[in-house]
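Per reviewer request, we include the raw input and output of the structure prediction for the construct analysed in the revised manuscript.
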Amino acid sequence: MQITLFLKKDKSSLVAFSSVLHHGFQVNAMVGCSIKELLCDQFEVAEEILKHRIQTLLLDGKPLDDEERATVKGGATIALSIALGGMVGVSLRKGGHLTNIRSTITHQEKETVKIPSTEGMVTIKLFNQLAGELGPLFLKKGLWVQKNDAMAILKDRLAALRSFIIKIEKDGMELTPDQLSNLNWSEVPAKVLLKAFLRPPENDPKVV
């Protein structure tokens, strides 16, 4: 099942998605590429943001220093964060002066043969301000989330979202907010593809 939301472009409209953006969501992607190719080419993250704004990058739980060399495999988990404070935060920063301290846990690329590009799924986690800054880029591509997480956003937090809603679609068919609220979640599959597009409010009339 796919639910698509068209929302007024307002940073507060992303609050309902904050939990799933922090705790992790799955995306369809072409894997067998570098982190840089995945983020910049497939999800339109600006290279300047990857280079300067994203200061902590974890691949399968291991700190990463070179996003151009590490290969993303199907099922990988990628966590992104701005610069974190404290000794631990400083040591996790990519290319920082404390990288030697964590050399035993740093991601090391072991593959000697290039992995062919193929369709796969990757889990993304966006920490701190990056949830608001990069969340829209992933939301417009589509997040695969567990049914309980989708229900928390689309039912439990619908009241908070309602004032931002321009249009709602379920599998291409338009719904009203009340129809979405009354959705029979017992019939919903275990995973839901959730998309959201942020638009200036003047682009579309508000759904009533």
